[in-house]
């Protein structure tokens, strides 16, 4: 019974006519919040995966140390790293690369400033491997005092806490939208019940059950939920895609990095601003209209049954 | 018959703090009986009918429908009872935004009858009461008499066990009025218990059905077949309908 035929002219009620619009707006907000939460989830996953699979070894040098001495030290460190179980590979970042990474903070090229730069060795770990940091640290310091291992742990913790905060906010917003939607439907249903009191009385006298009366309201709520929900979700999807596109374009225009590079985790993890959702995440969003319609229907039914039960 | 369609025992009705409209009324309706309900305007005919379709609870006394004491019924039990009772309301109570056909279809839809059967049955019945050309008409576009016939069709469409018709011929000419009475008699022959409230004495006198007469808040049963034996309706007893 999808409301193909109705004994009550519910669609003519002023309050009910606004319902699809209100529901559409609500679902739009909820879809944005849920979409944002999912983007954040992916970011968190990728940051964590990207960073926990990596270590950076920092080897500080005296300014007067010669190039050959430096490379001997670095070779010995790389040898130790390569012999350590669980380490998949090492990459030595050369001076030019380090200078490029520092440039945004220094304003000019570090090579021009002639300041002493440490050697940086990026270490890739085998997936799922936990290495004994303390003993590695000790071994490396024995080769060259001052050598440190940075596993980005503090940074990850901060970033994850921030992302969790965002997720909580999204959940809160979704909860509020849900509450507002339910209240709206209760209000519209009650209004409908009172407008059509006379007809409902006749239908009752003819032998209709409360459930029969409720079906009329349910059918309407279901229809409005589907229409409003689909509208809001589509608009939210367009908004998410639009923002994603805008971000990529502006990044590409600024020339900071080629747009293609933004997709994955790059050297600077914070730049991995990918707003696209995975297929299953799109599927979750696509379920929103159905969920809205279902909630609307149940709320309408519950409201009618409860109100009629009070009639004695 | 093991049970009575209607049993009133010492029933009184009073609206709020107003005067007593019905006082200590007792009578029974046996299955398949046909009664007129007569009395002056304001005598309480519509109120008496209301008691029989669960539209009003008695202030005191016992009303039983189909063997069940109304006082013991909960809201949940109402629909099943009401589906066995067809009512022609004095003010028709058609649903304004539904066509004649959909109004008549309502009792069947409420009872969950298949849509294909509904259209056929309702169309046939409306044709029978002379409204074949008005199936899709909204009530407000129909004359008073036409609306009354839609109301009658709606009351009888589901073949109720009990038909309560409140002034069902008040808005039609004598020819149509008689035709409608024959419709009620047909239904009665099929087993429906019928009560027709009216103050049309000439109509009543054309038939020999027993009469429930409301006078001074009390009820007397009058049997035209035995005119001398008009008597106050005694306390309810299964024998009161008279010879079968
Ligand atoms: N809902 C109500 N509230 C208060 N009083 C009522 C109500 N309904 C009926 N009455 C009163 O009850 C009395 C009987 O009314 P009722 O409608 O039963 O009479 P009736 O015999 O059907 O009259 P008529 O032949 O004019 O239809 C009247 O005095 C009326 O004012
Ligand atoms: Mg009346």
Automatic annotation (TrEMBL), chain A:
GO terms for cellular component: cell division site; membrane. The keyword Cell division applies. It comes from the Bacteria. Keywords: Cell cycle, Cell division, Membrane, Transmembrane, Transmembrane helix. InterPro entries: FtsX. The chain crosses the membrane at residues 20-40, 168-188, 225-243, 280-300. One of its GO terms (biological process) is cell division. The keyword Endoplasmic reticulum does not apply. This is Cell division transport system permease protein. The lineage of its organism: Bacteria, Pseudomonadati, Pseudomonadota, Alphaproteobacteria, Rhodospirillales.
UniProtKB/TrEMBL annotation, chain B:
One of its GO terms (biological process) is cell division. It is a peripheral membrane protein. NCBIfam families: FtsE. Residues 219-244 are annotated as: Disordered. Pfam families: ABC_tran. It is found in: Cell inner membrane; Cell membrane. Residues 224-244 have a biased composition (Low complexity). Residues 6-241 form the ABC transporter domain. GO terms for cellular component: plasma membrane. Keywords: ATP-binding, Cell cycle, Cell division, Cell membrane, Membrane, Nucleotide-binding, Transport. This is Cell division ATP-binding protein FtsE. Part of the ABC transporter FtsEX involved in cellular division. Important for assembly or stability of the septal ring. It comes from the Bacteria. GO terms for molecular function: ATP binding; ATP hydrolysis activity; transmembrane transporter activity. Homodimer. Forms a membrane-associated complex with FtsX. Belongs to the ABC transporter superfamily. The keyword Thylakoid does not apply. The keyword Chaperone does not apply.
């Amino acid at each position: 019974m999808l409301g193909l035929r109705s004994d009550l002219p519910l669609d003519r009620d002023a309050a009910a006519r606004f319902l699809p619009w209100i529901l559409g707006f609500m679902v739009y907000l909820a879809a944005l919040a849920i979409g944002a939460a999912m983007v954040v989830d992916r970011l968190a996953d990728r940051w964590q995966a990207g960073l926990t699979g990596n270590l950076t070894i920092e080897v500080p040098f005296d300014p007067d140390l010669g190039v050959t001495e430096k490379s001997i030290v670095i070779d010995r460190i790389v040898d130790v790293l390569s012999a350590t179980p669980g380490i998949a590979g090492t990459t030595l970042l050369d001076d030019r690369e380090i200078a490029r990474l520092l440039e945004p903070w220094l304003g000019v090229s570090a090579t021009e400033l002639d300041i002493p730069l440490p050697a940086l060795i990026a270490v890739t770990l085998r997936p799922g491997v936990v290495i004994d940091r303390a003993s590695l640290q000790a071994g490396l310091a024995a080769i060259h005092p001052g050598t440190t291992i940075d596993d980005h742990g503090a940074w990850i913790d901060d970033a994850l806490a921030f992302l969790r905060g965002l997720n909580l906010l999204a959940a809160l917003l979704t909860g509020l939208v849900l509450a507002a939607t339910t209240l709206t439907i209760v209000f519209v249903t009650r209004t409908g019940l009172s407008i059509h009191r006379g007809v409902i009385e006749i239908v009752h006298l003819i032998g209709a059950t409360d459930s029969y009366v409720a079906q009329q309201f349910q059918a309407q709520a279901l229809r409005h939920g589907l229409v409003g929900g689909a509208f809001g979700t589509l608009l939210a999807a367009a908004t998410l895609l639009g923002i994603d596109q805008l971000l990529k374009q502006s990044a590409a225009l600024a020339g900071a990095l080629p747009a293609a590079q933004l997709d994955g985790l790059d050297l600077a993890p914070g730049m991995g601003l990918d707003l696209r959702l995975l297929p299953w995440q799109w599927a979750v969003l696509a379920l929103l209209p159905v969920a809205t319609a279902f909630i609307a229907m149940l709320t309408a039914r519950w409201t009618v049954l409860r109100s009629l039960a009070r009639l004695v | 018959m093991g049970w009575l369609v209607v049993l009133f025992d010492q029933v009184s009705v009073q609206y709020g703090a107003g005067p007593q409209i019905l006082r200590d009324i007792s009578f029974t309706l046996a299955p398949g009986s046909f009664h007129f309900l007569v009395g002056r305007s304001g005598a309480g005919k519509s109120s008496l009918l209301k008691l029989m379709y669960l539209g009003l609870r008695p202030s005191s006394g016992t009303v039983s429908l189909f063997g069940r004491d109304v006082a013991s019924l909960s809201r949940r039990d109402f629909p099943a009872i009401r589906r066995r009772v067809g009512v022609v309301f004095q003010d028709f109570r058609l649903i304004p935004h539904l066509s004649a056909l959909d109004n008549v279809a309502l009792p069947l839809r409420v009872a969950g009858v298949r849509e294909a059967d509904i259209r056929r049955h309702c169309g046939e019945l409306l044709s029978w009461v002379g409204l074949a050309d008005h199936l899709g008409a909204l009530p407000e576009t129909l004359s008073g008499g036409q609306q009354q016939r839609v109301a009658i069709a709606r009351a009888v469409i589901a073949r109720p066990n009990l038909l309560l018709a409140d002034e069902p011929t008040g808005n039609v000419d004598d020819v149509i009025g008689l035709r409608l009475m024959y419709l009620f008699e047909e239904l009665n022959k099929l087993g429906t218990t019928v009560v027709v409230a009216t103050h049309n004495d000439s109509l009543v006198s054309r038939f020999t059905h027993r009469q429930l007469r409301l006078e001074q808040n009390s009820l007397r049963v009058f049997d035209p077949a035995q005119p001398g034996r008009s008597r106050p309706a005694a306390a309810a007893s299964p024998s009161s309908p008279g010879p079968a």
